[in-house]
Design brief:
four-stranded antiparallel β-sheet, 27 strands, alpha/beta, seven-stranded mixed β-sheet, 21 helices, 673 residues
Length: 673
């Protein structure tokens, strides 16, 4: 395929393309110093033509980009994408960001394939052993959702009607049938990966690495279990990461509700303002600011929670309360609000959960038990109006947390989960940048990286799913789950440990949860090379890798976690450079979305303009900056790639015969400036 950036035409402009590839110096280079593969480069055109791979340059008037796929397949079949370790001991290695196995190609994929392929082909031509490791991610939530919907639409059955083994078997069947779609599309983009080293995050090698990592972190005291506030997805019925929750400003309603003061007159009441009145059943206190004179006389007394048959809660004071929001009175619902949860832990308040895991209210809500949270909100407000406890409601715009996967409103919920203690890991990752062991390009993202790691929270790694890496923890039948368990690499090892501690008649069962998909992805740069077997040839030859190229939007999701895990398990940063690209937007600078109808399909684009024109267009972007994609740019760049074809045709037509050794030696000695 044609070179994908015009800056390659000028050696003095190389540095502007990518500082990882080119220095600012301009100097002459002998063609003989370039290595075009393990075979003699003067026979390349002849060998390819004899195999019917390329169109004869004497016949074709323009480049037929319909031939791109055939050319690519020939390259791959000849083994040109594999690293040649005989070339030296300074390899150039990139781990491909593994796309979801459920995915279809989008412009983000096209961007990373383009940029990484430029880097890989450049270093391969320079003669370095070059490895680009491909693979896919099992995408726990996304894949389970796809298969559940397929079963519902095609067979009319729900996941819970199958056993766990039956369901996961169906998912594997789906993966075998459809999971290769994204890989074939990436190949269509011309990605010169070593496909013999392709990995899947649930394959045997990577699964072994995941178990090793969990057991090791637990032995070091960095993995623990506890009941804490998490982001809960009611429809998926699983916890989701803080990073997987997207907040959007949405119109809603602010409800004003009276809380009568116990033992007071009819005029003694406090009015609270809330966007979620259904959580009042979980109130464990009413809080006011200590310097708010309006309510100082009520501090220390009791308030009556509406619609709870007279349940009393204390009226307290705390500087956390915002006097200027609403009425200046805060209902404290620590089981359903992150800030209230922290306040309750500080003050020692009890925590009440009023929500079932499917988003319906539980028995704590009394007469509203069993109602969906949004249905309960409507009915509760109606009942409050009838009892005279509803003051008013008014339009209000608030930040609504939604699941990045399903789009539903996330429910803050206290739940027993597994967590990774992040501060000790983050400290090492911060030092890696400070000491220059890791360089982030563009440099401005180092500040963002440092800020996130300096304020990091513990990572909730358990997910209530069936598809994924099962947590390697076994509980003891009849014992408290939180206290009595064993961590082991296999069921046999777990049973042996349990028998040693509890006797030979002990019975055990495995934790039903799976690990967050990002846990296995965090091990990607070294698990794909053989870790935890540090004697593996690929690990010894190619780790640490050279560079990680990806979108700036997953700097926290993936990049920072890989740095932390790489240092923890291998003692070194997993790559020396992080190169971040921007997002692809439409011609008007808008984010591409199905709602706006402005999504551009890369495969359709390739059919119309060719792979080279698309890659050339994407390569014109600046590191870390978003790129606007337009038909006009693609049309112009299609014409430019054809000019490259004509230039190549001119060269091929004027090359000496393969037997003219002296002519080829003269060409090899020629200096390029």
């Amino acid at each position: 395929m044609a070179l994908s950036n015009p800056l390659l035409l000028s050696s003095c402009s190389f540095h502007r393309l990518n500082p990882l590839l080119f220095s600012r110096r301009c100097y002459g280079t002998k063609l003989s110093q370039w290595h075009f593969n393990s075979f003699n480069h003067r026979f390349f055109a002849i060998a390819a033509s004899q195999n019917g791979v390329f169109t004869s340059p004497e016949v074709a008037k323009c480049f037929d980009f319909a031939s791109e796929e055939r050319i690519y397949n020939w390259w791959d079949s000849q083994g040109y994408f594999k690293p040649n370790v005989d070339r030296g001991n300074d390899p150039f290695v990139i781990s491909m960001p593994p796309p979801n196995v459920t995915g279809f190609l989008h412009m983000g994929h096209a961007m990373f394939v383009t940029l990484e392929d430029i880097m890989v082909r450049y270093h391969r031509m320079k003669g370095r052993p070059t490895l680009w490791i491909p693979g896919t991610d099992h995408a726990g939530i996304a894949t389970q959702l796809v298969v559940e919907r397929m079963l519902a639409s095609e067979e009319g059955i729900k996941r819970v009607e199958l056993s766990r083994d039956e369901f996961t078997s169906r998912v594997w069947d789906w993966k075998e049938k459809y999971g290769g779609t994204i890989i074939n599309q990436i190949k269509r983009l011309g990605a010169s990966c070593d496909w013999t080293r392709e990995h899947f995050t649930l394959d045997e090698q990577l699964s072994r690495a995941v178990i090793e990592a969990f057991v090791s972190l637990h032995e070091k005291g960095l993995i623990y279990q506890g009941s804490y506030m998490v982001n809960w997805s009611p429809s998926l019925q699983t916890a989701v990461s803080d990073l997987e929750v997207e907040y959007s400003e949405e119109p809603g309603t602010l409800y004003y509700v009276k809380y009568r003061v116990a033992g007071g007159s009819k005029s003694d009441f406090l009015t609270i303002a809330t966007t979620r009145p259904e959580t009042l059943f979980g109130d464990t206190a009413i809080a006011v600011h200590p310097q708010d004179d309006r309510y100082s006389k009520y501090i220390g007394r009791q308030a009556i929670v509406p619609m709870t048959f007279g349940r009393h809660i204390p009226i307290i004071s705390d500087k956390y309360v915002d006097k200027d929001f609403g009425t200046g009175v805060l209902k404290v619902s620590p089981g359903h609000d992150h800030n209230d949860y922290l306040l309750a832990r500080k003050l020692g308040l009890p925590i009440l959960n009023v929500m079932n895991k499917d988003g319906t209210l539980n028995e704590v809500a009394g007469l509203y038990c069993g109602l969906d949270r949004f249905e309960a909100r409507k009915k509760l407000w109606s009942d409050l109006e009838e009892t005279g406890l509803a003051v008013k409601k008014e339009p209000h715009t608030s930040r609504v947390p939604r699941s990045q996967r399903g789009g539903e409103v996330i429910e803050p919920l206290v739940s027993r989960q597994w967590f990774v203690s992040m501060e000790p890991l983050a400290e090492k990752a911060l030092h890696a940048v400070e000491k220059g062991e890791l360089k982030i390009i563009p440099e401005r993202f180092e500040k963002i990286y440092n800020h996130w790691l300096s304020n990091i929270k513990d990572w909730c790694i358990s997910r209530q799913l069936w598809w994924g890496h099962r947590i390697p923890v076994w509980y003891i039948e009849g014992k408290d789950c939180e206290e009595e368990y064993v961590v082991a690499k296999t069921a046999e090892e777990a049973l042996a440990k349990a028998q040693q501690k509890y006797g030979k008649n002990v019975e055990i069962y495995q934790d039903p949860d799976v690990l967050d998909t990002w846990f296995s992805s965090a091990l990607w740069p070294f698990s794909t090379l053989g870790w935890p077997d540090v004697s593996a040839e690929d690990f010894k030859q190619f780790y640490p890798t050279t560079l990680l190229e990806t979108g700036h939007d997953i700097l926290f999701f993936w990049v920072a976690r890989m740095v932390m895990m790489g240092i923890e398990f291998t003692g070194t940063v997993p790559f020396s450079y992080v190169y971040l690209h921007g997002l692809i937007r439409d011609s008007q600078g808008r984010k591409m979305s199905k709602t706006l109808g402005n999504v551009v399909d890369p495969i359709d684009t390739i059919k119309e303009f060719g792979t080279d024109a698309l890659r050339f267009t994407l390569a014109l972007g600046t590191a870390g900056q978003d790129l606007n994609l337009s038909t006009e740019r693609l049309t112009s760049n299609k014409a430019f790639t054809n000019k490259l074809w004509n230039a190549g045709k001119f060269v091929l037509q004027n090359l000496p015969s393969k037997d003219d050794t002296s002519a080829w030696e003269s060409i090899a000695d020629y200096k390029v400036y």
